[in-house]
Amino acid sequence: MGVATTLFVASAALVVYLVAGYPVLLALLSRANRRPILKDDVLRPVSIVIAVRNGENFIADKLDSILALDYPRKLVEIIVISDGSSDRTDEIARTYYERGVQLWRLPRGGKATALNFGIAKARNEILVLTDVRQKLARDSVRQLVKCFGDPKVGAASGKLRILDGETDGEGSTGLYWKYEVALRKGMSAIGSTFGANGPFYAMRRALAVPIPADTLLDDVYLPLAAFFRGYRLILEESAQAFDYPTSLQSEFRRKVRTQAGLFQILRLYPQMLRRQNPMRFHWVSAKFGRLALPWLLIVMLVASLGLPAPFNIWLFLGQVAFYSIAALDSVLPEWLPFKRATSLVRTFVVLVISSLLAMRVFFVAPQKLWKETQVRKVNG
Asked: Roughly how many angstroms between the first and final C-alpha of the chain, as a whole number?
């Protein structure tokens, strides 16, 4: 084969593997090589830590859901760390003081700094780290704590359920999250997930380490410290939290940050790519491979022009049509019957572009990549 054909075929094969082939392989492996989790019913003392900045729209619902947990109140410590909030977050949180909620206000320093402070204040055996926006199911903490009956479990993530959106764009973003959950479920079954589910997870207090202040993925950095001490990071599907649907624009900003965070994690944990890491193959396939997706797609587009005729024209025009569909989706009305399909195409392309823009982390201060996630509150 010529150089162009070789490049096109190799790039296309890798794209198919990263997007669809690996998930299928993981599903098969997780069925054949499942590692059980040894749960128990011991009610361990927990410290629930919420790092928040300007969460006035969510803080009351969040604290109400925590206070409604079916977990003995005497075993629960609730710590709210306000990261320089400039809205009514602090005012609302203070009204929960009589119900045992601690509020600590810090100058704005970023989520990692707020979490470090909250973890240092926590007194109990199990840390439950959760964001302000997601309400917790009544039995969610109980289900997470059961996992620590297994001495090899270092951190356990809850399952985030996205409430139904009203637009196809919100629906496509929710579908992408289901894809993510499926990958985490598979990796959890055979070994360990890549980090934890940031909005809601628990870990052993004794395994917590200080998080560097400029860390973009605190929910990866902190659990990985436990993993490299020999502990498992798992997903517990019965422990549920509920989040609001997000627009594609908001998800794009979040993905730029999280993909940039992958570059950071590679620098902070170079042992992830060493053969001593039993999850190296899976983490590269599920996470780091995505950083290569935009470059593989660019190679496919350029290399298709060098293919033998007439394949060069048809394959090049097919790719152009694919990207044109993504570009046009934002102006198509919601009532069109094929809108759902075009929204999926647009979601894929937008998230691939986010991987490309993640390289900004090499040129700007990491904290500049933090953007507030915009959501629309719905009932549920």
From this structure: 56
Q: 10 Å Cβ neighbour count for 31?
A: 11
Indicate the helix (H) or strand (E) that contains 203: strand 200-204
Cα 237 from Cα 96, distance rounded (Å): 30
Rg of the chain on CA atoms, in Å: 22
Kindly state whether residue 380 falls inside one of the protein's structural domains.
no
Q: Bridge partners of 126?
A: 46, 204
Kindly state whether residue 103 falls inside one of the protein's structural domains. Answer: yes
**Token output for 327:** 């570009």
Q: Smallest Cα–Cα separation from 254: which of 370, 357, 144?
A: 370
CB atoms within 10 A of CB 67: 14
Low-confidence ranges of the chain (pLDDT < 70): 1, 164-172, 371-380
Q: Which of 227, 67, 218, 69 is nearest to 145 (CA)?
A: 69
- Please state, in angstroms and rounded to a whole number, the distance separating the CA atoms of residues 87 and 56: 6
Q: What is the pLDDT of residue 248?
A: 72
In a domain, 322, yes or no: no
In a domain, 275, yes or no: no
Tens digits of residue pLDDT in 5-38: 999 999 999 999 999 999 999 999 999 999 999 9
CATH code of residue 120: 3.90.550.10
Is residue 286 a contact partner of residue 187, using CB atoms and an 8 Å limit? yes
Tokens encoding 311: 């394949």
d(CA 330, CA 339) in angstroms, rounded, equals: 10
Q: Quote the CA–CA distance of 236 and 145 in Å, as a whole number.
A: 10
